[in-house]
Amino acid sequence: MTYQNILYSLAGGIARITLNRPEKLNAFNAAMHLDLRDALIRVRAGKARVLLLSGAGRGFCAGQDLDERDLSPGAPAPDLGHGLEMHYKPLVLALRTLPMPVICAVNGVAAGAGASVALACDIVLAARSASFIQAFCKLGLVPDAGSTYNLPRLVGTARAMGLSLLGDKLPAEQAENWGLIWKCLPDDQLMAEAERLALHFSTGPTKGLARTKQAIYASADNTLEQQLDLECAYQRDIGLGQDYREGVNAFKEKRPPRFNGD
What we know:
Blueprint: E1 6-11, E2 14-19, H1 30-45, E3 50-55, H2 80-97, E4 102-106, E5 109-111, H3 113-119, E6 123-127, E7 131-133, H4 147-155, H5 157-166, E8 169-171, H6 172-177, E9 183-185, H7 190-202, H8 206-218, H9 224-239, H10 242-253
Helix pairs in contact: 1-2, 4-5, 8-9
């Protein structure tokens, strides 16, 4: 299937989604959300073992396309909550709950909801020229699409407050130093590293990796005892699969494991 606002492919266990409105810095509109929703359903239902999300052109995503907002005199006030309920909430939850690693390659600016969506992914790589901007305050808005949840958990309350209330540009290298993202890379190495990681995960123990991300995300709201119980349940489940058996046998035989994702 061909989409108008994204590029999608699935090969060798690697699903690739590229936001593809470069003339708008890949800003979200309703049509792009619908394309993304369909593509993520295909990722979940298909044989993907990792998802790589990126943006076409000179930026990752500039957030919401404000050309969709009619704020001319006499126009009815928009229901911004409805747009979040219909589009951004399902998108963020779909990325966060995919049963596989989700890599995001940020090649330029990630602003507003674009930054929120990037931070909803499991491993975020960024080019050295990239930046993250919580631009909501410049429009008189509240950070959304998960930013008020993810930011304080990633960088702490003080830095989350500063980023959100001031809307300053955060360079990728500083984002790495703050723990907001996994790694900052030279611009010409970004996609090569993203593809290397995608290839690594495409032959990895997919079920175990999925349980790992689920456990880590659950830990923020669990007590220690609840988290220990969750670890017991997940290890019990994974221990019944073939990948655990293969991993142990490969370790004993001093050879690379051949995981099938189970």
